[in-house]
């Protein structure tokens, strides 16, 4: 699923089941030492997908520590992103020679809880969701909006090292499979306030991606 919405210069891997815990590197074990079973499995398989994707761009398997605010610490010369949700795990990576950042996010294909939407979307974004729903009520557009903002954050944070609130990006979803995001705050490291991404749905999941090329 994730490969369908990534450019050819981004490598990816995905799993619908879990990898054995032995696939973790010893350096990664402390990060889940006190974690519950669900968290252990998603962490292990996310790392497994990351190493599979890295192998596709010629990177020898090694540990991927958890860095500042939970962001993965990618091997030198690479950038990437990990996502997991019930029944799905994926990673996407690229060489820093071609990419500045990659952000991916997967979610169950189900409407957001009603009380969540106003906390992640502006009145204008909610209005736009209504129009999309009128055209196709099966997609779960609110979940795509949420996921797109998670992908924005996963591109924003590794570049800026800063928090970004849901109210600080405006996402405009195109029904044909893409979206654009306008950042309402600037950061010198970002160098742009405009991002573009893609979305895809399967029976049970939705996913979004943003791949920021190196100019
Ligand atoms: C960090 C966050 C984006 C993760 O998204 P999620 O939908 O909850 O969970 P996912 O499974 O898709 O992603 C989790 C993975 O994201 C990665 N991640 C965590 N923090 C990250 C960060 N600061 N930067 C980049 N990637 C990060 C990790 O790889 C993590 O998996 P791991 O802990 O097993 O390594 C989310 O929890 C969060 O904090 N969001 C608030 C900020 C935000 O989204 N703002 C919107 C701006 S428009």
UniProtKB/TrEMBL annotation:
Entry GO MF terms: transferase activity
Judging by the UniProt lineage, the source's domain of life is Bacteria
**InterPro entries reported for this sequence:** 4-PPantetheinyl_Trfase_dom, 4-PPantetheinyl_Trfase_dom_sf, 4PPT_N, Enbac_synth_compD-like
Which keywords belong to this entry? Answer: Transferase
Alphabetical list of Pfam families matching this protein: 4PPT_N, ACPS
Q: What is this protein called?
A: 4'-phosphopantetheinyl transferase superfamily protein
Where does the record place the 4'-phosphopantetheinyl transferase domain?
Answer: 101-186
**Residue ranges occupied by any 4'-phosphopantetheinyl transferase N-terminal domain in the UniProt entry:** 27-94
Where are the membrane-spanning stretches? none
């Amino acid at each position: 699923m994730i490969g369908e919405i990534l450019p050819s210069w981004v490598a990816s891997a995905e799993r619908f089941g879990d990898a054995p815990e032995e696939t973790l590197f010893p350096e990664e074990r402390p990060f889940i030492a006190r974690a519950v079973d669900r968290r252990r499995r998603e962490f292990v398989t996310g790392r497994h997908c990351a190493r599979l994707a890295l192998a596709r761009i010629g990177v020898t398997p090694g540990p991927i520590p958890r860095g500042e605010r939970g962001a993965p610490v990618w091997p030198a010369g690479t950038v990437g992103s990990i996502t997991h949700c019930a029944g799905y795990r994926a990673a996407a990576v690229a060489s820093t020679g071609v990419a500045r950042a990659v952000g991916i996010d997967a979610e169950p294909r189900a409407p957001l809880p009603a009380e969540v939407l106003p906390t992640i979307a502006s009145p204008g974004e909610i209005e736009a969701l209504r129009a999309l729903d009128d055209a196709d009520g099966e997609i779960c557009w609110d979940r795509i909006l949420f996921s797109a903002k998670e992908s924005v954050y996963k591109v924003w944070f590794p570049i800026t090292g800063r928090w970004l609130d849901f109210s600080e990006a405006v996402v405009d979803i195109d029904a044909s499979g893409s979206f654009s995001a306008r950042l309402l705050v600037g950061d010198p490291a970002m160098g742009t306030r405009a991002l573009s991404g893609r979305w895809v749905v399967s029976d049970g999941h939705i996913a979004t991606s943003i791949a920021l090329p190196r100019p």
